[in-house]
Structure formats: C-alpha cells, structure tokens
Amino acid sequence: MKEDLEKVYQKVKPFVHRTPVLTSHLMDEIAGCHLFFKCENFQKMGAFKMRGAINAILNLSEEQKKKGVVTHSSGNFAQALSLAAKNLGIPAYIVMPNSAPQVKKAAVKTYGGKITECEPTLEAREKAATKIQQETGATFLHPSNNLDVILGQGTSAYELLQEQPDLDFVVTPVGGGGLIAGTALAVKHFGKNCKCVAGEPKATDDAFRSMQSGKIETNVSANTIADGLKTHLGDINFPIILKYVDQIILVSETEIIEALRLIWERMKIVVEPSSAVALAAVLNQKEKFKNKKVGIIISGGNVDLSKLPF
Amino acid sequence: MKEDLEKVYQKVKPFVHRTPVLTSHLMDEIAGCHLFFKCENFQKMGAFKMRGAINAILNLSEEQKKKGVVTHSSGNFAQALSLAAKNLGIPAYIVMPNSAPQVKKAAVKTYGGKITECEPTLEAREKAATKIQQETGATFLHPSNNLDVILGQGTSAYELLQEQPDLDFVVTPVGGGGLIAGTALAVKHFGKNCKCVAGEPKATDDAFRSMQSGKIETNVSANTIADGLKTHLGDINFPIILKYVDQIILVSETEIIEALRLIWERMKIVVEPSSAVALAAVLNQKEKFKNKKVGIIISGGNVDLSKLPF
Predict the structure, then answer these.
(1) Is ATP-binding there in the keyword field (chains A, B) (predicted)?
(2) Does B308 contact chain A (CB < 8 Å)?
(3) Are residues A93 and A169 in the same domain?
C-alpha cells in the first residue's frame, strides 16, 4: 500500500497545486499545541476533492476515458470531477438536484460539466446517473466510496507529512469518508507514531456511531452548518476508517462557528465551515493535543459569502 | 536613496514576516493581465503598517527608545506601533477616540499598548498626544507622514520586486500616503520600467485632487467602506507621491465591494476593503494594464466579520 500511495502521488502531482502549509503563533497559543494547516482551500477549484477526482480519472482505461465520467453531487465533487475531466479532455456528466443553488450549477458549468437536473432525492439522483451511464457508456465515480478517490485524497496528508514528518496527529473533518480514509492510509504509511483523528458535527454523528457499532450508521436529520459533511460512510472507506482512525471527536455547531471565525480572523484565510470542524475538534480536546504537533487538513474554501454565520 | 532602502530592509527584516506573493489563473483571466498579490494581510498584526512602525522605532536613539513612543490612531497603526514597541521592549502610548470600536481597543491592549481615550475630534487627539509627550518624553510617530515610516512601508514592494523584478506596475491603495510613497520609492529604485499607481475611493478623492492641484487637498466627507483610506496626505509624503506616482485611479464603492468579493471568493483570503481598492483600480482600467505584469499590495486583513458588505 505504501508504494501505491507513492505512485498515486506521482500521478496526481502534475494536475494539482502543492498547497501551502500555514502556521500561526497566535493560533498555537489559543490551541496550546503546534498547528500546521494544510490549505486545500488554495487547491484548484477550492477543495481537496480535485485530488481524488484526478486520480480516479487517470486510472480509467483509454476506452473508458473516451466515454467520460458521471457522478451525482451538488457539492465540491461535482466541480472537481468537471475540472479534472476538462483538464484531461474527457466529458463529465453531473447529476444535480434541481434544488441545488444557482451558484453551484454555474461553477460546474464554468468547469465544463454537463448538468442533468433531477428531483432532490437520492433515488432520483441514482436513477438519473444510471440512465446517463446506459446512454453514454460513461463510468460512474462515487465522490467518496471509491478506492482511487480515497487514495487521491490521501495525497494532501502525504504532502503535509513530507514537510512535517514528525507530526503527532493529523486531523480532518469526516463526511462521506473519502478524505479521512485517504488521510489515515497516508498517516499509517508515512507518519512516525502519528495518529489520524477526525472531527464530526454532533448534528451528523453517523461516523462516530459507526465506529462504535462497527457498521455503517446513517443520520435521520442533518442540521449542520458544515454542509459538506452531511453524507455517510461507504463500504469501501469504512473498513479503512475502522482500522486506522484513532478517534472521532464530536463538536457542536457553536464550536464549529467559533473555530471558523478564528481561522478567518487570525489566519486571514477563507475556509468552509466543514474545514473548521477539524480545528474545533482540537480545541474540544485540548488535553489530548497539548504541546503536540498537529496537522489540520483545511478541506476547502468554497463558501457562499451571502450566507455567513457571523 | 537606493542604499537607504536596502538598509531599511535589512533592519526591518528580522521583525516582520516575508509575506507570500499569491497568483491565480482565474483572477488573471478576469483582469486580463498577470497579477501578483503581495499579501500583507498575512503580516504580523495583519497589515503592512508593522513595517513602518518597526523602522521608525529602530531609528530612535537609545534615550528616545527608553521613553517610548506615542501616536493617535484608531486603526492598524495603533496596533502596529503597540506590537512593534512590545517586540523591542519599549512603551507605546496610544491615543484613541472614545468612539473607537471595542474590538480595536482590545487589539491594542493585546499588543501591550497603553490607551488614552479622548473625544473623537482631531483637535482632542492631538492635544492628548501632546500631553503624553510632555509628561513621558515619548516620541510622537505619525502613522503616514514620517520618512522612517514611509521607508518601512516601502519594504513590501521591495520584497515583491525581488521576487518579480520585471513588473510593469505596482498598485496600492492610497489613504494617508505612507504606503504609496514608500512603494513609489521602492519602484523607482528597484523596478525596471515599472510604474507606481494608486487606487482611491471616489468618496475620498483628496489624493487624486492633490495630484491635480499640486497642493494637499482634504475631504469634506469620507463615506467609504475602505475605512483605512479616510485620512489625507502629509507634507512629507506628498512631494514623493507627486514626483513618483504615475496615476491615481478613482473607484466607486460598488467597484470596491466587487473587487473585495472577487479576492475573498477566488483567492480564498481575508482582506480589508481598503486592499480591494487596488484591484478595483486595475479592473477599472483594463486597457492600461492589458497583458502587463501587475503587482498589487494587499494592505491588510483586519476586518470586522460582523460587518461585511456581502
């Protein structure tokens, strides 16, 4: 697996930014530990999802590439797959609920994705995606429950550990499970006594409960500001998470908004609420992280500035 | 003067961050030129003002240092002087209008500045500062009309031109005149056929009018979102500006807010409205800057997140 990750990194590298790692004395003082922020908000299309999308497409056969890729997503993966496909000159079909914000549809169109709208239910989304697969022969790529996607997402932590090899922890948010699974694999193979930890909103604590029960749990409601984390784990990423993730820390909506404000005000960077969940987790467990070297994957920076919680 | 600037840079260097220069393909497409953003929002205390404050203090005699420094300011210079003085172990007395926001007073206190409150008039501010000078022997430092401050502010453009020596333009906002004067000197001595341009809000067009009339003009009202630019030029920086600044471009409040939104959304960085004035100037004169290499000094990132214009 270690060699696989190396290979993935070499493949993905020409298509993504090597994002900067930011530090701040003030943030270290507040958190009581040494923080290293891996800024995927500066990644192409504004989120880590670009890494997994590129890797998944690169692993298709030439025949598959010609016919294109399809996914259903209203979030960052729709944009990532559109841009990754555009960069590689292949078609991307994106199924989006007709309730998706105009701004997100516009972003997908900018990156060249071909949008099919459907009713805002999982059933309608899957049906529309299957229909496109049948009509075009395009390959379906899941945003998080796909091993190539997972390994691609792991390249962010891989880069971080190249720069900071002696981190004690790497912390990410957990939603669909792609980022945390990829990060956990990178931490296991490239960290030295490094542990992988996730932050999760209390309002969508399915991953936390899944770790306890040993099976994939879902949420009845998903009332969190961290809108990127409303999805649940999948059968491909869950076994990796169960085996390699040290702990999932739950945080309240107030904690997420406070952490978000801290990052914006002190670090002067624009990040998504989902990204703040990782910092909120560290601030929630100060004793655990005290004086440790802690990497935080800032997952993305695509926010609607008209809808800020401040 | 070239050697002076070199010396200032060497003196200031240990006390400030060498801020990053960010680029963005998307922003280049929008602007129709090649943009290089020198990010002083990532500077210590969040703005370029740290550079001038440090240089001014370093140029005091040992006797003067012991007695400390005094200024009147409710903005970034109050914080900059407090932090610079703290770093050098000398007292900083800050006169602030009693109407100044609590958050700004708190920031000055965090950095160790000793606050004296006064009525919110220029007369009361000057009177309070003079009283402190008399009582403590502290040296008065003006936020922008002081040659050491001006030369210190110029170190941002100096660093930018070290990284990008063949820029065609460097653009800054203009308020009190310290940043643009320092930048103009750096551009003259370290640029190759490089011109220094300023953006200014139409609502406070005193610098624009001063360039036309050849004498320092003031504003009757100052109704702009770019709250760092409400001050007017001084007798030390104005001759430099008159001689070395190529053009002052006026921009509307709508243009400033649009440029601000572009920087936040596309660059994923938190900047002050004043910083967006420089980009707004470039977007206002696309023909002038077409296909050119344009440096933009992002002046700072201290914003009140509760009062955003989005």
Answers:
(1) no
(2) yes
(3) no
Q: Do residues A234 and A82 touch, judged by C-beta distance below 8 A?
A: no
At A224-257, the pLDDT tens digits run 999 999 999 999 999 999 999 999 999 999 999 9
Q: Are residues A164 and A290 in the same domain?
A: yes
Angle between helices A2-12 and A178-190 (to 10 degrees): 120
- CATH number of the CATH domain containing B256: 3.40.50.1100
Shortest distance between the Cα of B30 and any Cα of chain A, in A, equals: 13
Contacts of B20 in chain A (CB under 8 A): 20
Chain A: closest CA distance from residue B9 (Å): 23
**Helix extents (H) in A114-200:** 122-136, 147-163, 178-190
B181 and B69 within one domain: no
Structural domains counted in chain A: 2
| Domain range enclosing A77 | 50-140
Residue A55 sits in the same domain as residue A116: yes
Say how far apart CA A310 and CA A260 lie, in whole Å: 9
pLDDT digits 0-9 by tens, B241-295: 999 999 999 999 999 999 999 999 999 999 999 999 999 999 999 999 999 999 9
Handedness of CA A168, A171, A177, A182 (dihedral sign): negative
